[in-house]
Design brief:
Rossmann fold; seven-stranded mixed beta sheet; 7 strands; 34% helix; binds S-adenosylmethionine
Length: 195
């Protein structure tokens, strides 16, 4: 039987060698907001199957690198990519920071809960993940750094947005074209971390 999620974005991702269609969301965000640049050290939360990580490695090039965290292993590997299999709630500063990596320039979070179909519950769980991404920004993002964080919209969203606005100089909301019509996901694009 045909997979109903296998749409034109998924087909294009496959043709271009990315493990998932989500790559086009990050690509559009980056082309619009210039979140990533050559040489950046990037932390990618909810990294599997690895589309964002592959794209980020291409953008940062040989002088940068990407560290990815997920509960499950990615389908992507590369010289510029290190994977840590861990729950983001259990990750500690020492897991991420070393003499070689004193900070990150960019934190990406495409973390998504296992959806239950109960809108409010999925929303709250996604806000909890987005708040964890913000905590990790406070732990390891350099002053002036950027973050992109996915969240499912709902009643807690305005409060979450304010939390980002307290910590970043410029906060935008963006819904890339590759987000499915029925999805309530949006991306918080948070630029220039206040430190
Ligand atoms: C939408 S997928 C990410 C897709 C990825 N950005 C890509 O382009 O390939 C969301 C990921 O979040 C991960 N995730 C959800 N909760 C997590 C947690 N508490 N700790 C670590 N990873 C988690 C899931 O395992 C899943 O792989």
């Amino acid at each position: 039987m045909a997979n109903p999620w296998f749409d034109s974005w998924a087909k294009l991702a496959k043709e271009k060698g990315y493990p998932a269609r989500s790559v086009f969301k990050l690509k559009e965000i980056n082309e619009r907001f210039k979140v990533l640049k050559r040489g950046d050290k990037v932390l990618d939360l909810g990294t599997s199957p690895g589309s964002w990580a592959k794209y980020a490695c291409e953008v940062v090039g040989e002088t940068g690198f990407v560290v990815g965290i997920d509960l499950t292993p990615p389908k992507f590997s590369g010289r510029l990519y290190r994977f840590i299999q861990k729950n983001v709630f259990e990750v500690e500063k020492e897991d991420l920071i070393s003499q070689d990596i004193p900070y990150f320039d960019v934190i990406l979070s495409d973390l998504a809960p296992k959806t239950t179909g109960i809108r409010d519950m999925d929303h709250l769980e996604s806000v909890r993940l987005a708040e964890r991404a913000l905590q990790l920004c406070e732990m390891v993002l350099r002053k002036g750094g950027n973050a992109v964080v996915k969240v499912f919209e709902g009643p807690e969203f305005p409060r979450l947005r304010k939390e980002f606005e307290k910590r970043f100089k410029d906060v935008k909301l963006f819904r890339p074209k590759a987000v499915r019509k029925e999805s309530r996901e949006v991306y918080v694009v948070a630029l220039n971390f206040k430190g």
